[in-house]
Amino acid sequence: MRFLIDFFPILLFFGAYKLHDIYVGTAVLMAATVLQSVLIYAIDRRLQTMQKATLALVLVFGALTLGLHDERFIKWKPTVLYVGMALGLAAALWGWRKNVLQLLLGSQLRLPDAVWGRLTWAWIGYFLFMAASNAYVAAYYSTEAWMDFKLWGYAFPVIFLVGQGLYVARYLKDERP
């Protein structure tokens, strides 16, 4: 169920884009992201920082896209989000000496501090790679090509998460009796 809630705004965005255009798709994305946030809040009684940031960026960049009738804004939103997440992880790690991944997931995964550090560096690199990839496609390709990249680009997080899982698996101890 949670998986469907997480992906339904983007699926509706693609559908509306394919049936109409980027502007209808953007309006649908904005409405679906608001609905997604309401549903998550109803289930969890709170929104995580990432969910709040995504909602804010979708609404701001979506409003700019619709208000100025300029598709570049919605195409650049992922780049801004990815760079922001990379900077947030890096600033927390370097500036405040806090490992955000460990703070968020440490109660679910017991890993050595060095492994948490490597995971955080991997996520920073992943976010920068995704930001650069989106920026390149948004800057040099058509909106149609960017939409195809966004659709098929979902292979990147799947590959990255599988790789993370394989890396982490060797550090997990079997705690069954």
Quick tags:
mainly alpha, 8 helices
For this structure, the quaternary state is: single chain
Kindly give the count of domains.
2
Shape: globular
**pLDDT average, as an integer?**
91
Query: How far is the N terminus from the C terminus?
Result: 31 Å
Strand fraction = under 5%
Largest sheet: none
Could you estimate the helical fraction of the residues in percent? over 70%
Rg: 18 Å
Low-confidence stretches: none
Would you tell me the structural class of the helices and strands?
mainly alpha
Number of helices: 8
Number of strands: 0
Q: What is the string of helix and strand elements?
A: HHHHHHHH
Description:
Pfam families: IspA (PF04279). Keywords: Cell inner membrane, Cell membrane, Membrane, Transmembrane, Transmembrane helix. InterPro entries: YciB. It comes from Malikia granosa. The chain crosses the membrane at residues 21-43, 49-68, 80-96, 116-139, 151-172. The structure is a single chain. With 177 residues, the protein is mainly α. It has 2 domains: 1-68; 71-172. The protein is 81% helix and 0% strand. The chain has 8 helices and no strands. The chain has helices at residues 2-19, 22-44, 49-68, 72-94, 100-105, 113-140, 143-152, 155-169. Helix 1 (2-19) runs antiparallel to helix 2, helix 3 (49-68) packs antiparallel against helix 4 and helix 4 (72-94) runs antiparallel to helix 6 (113-140). The model has no long low-confidence stretch (mean pLDDT 91).
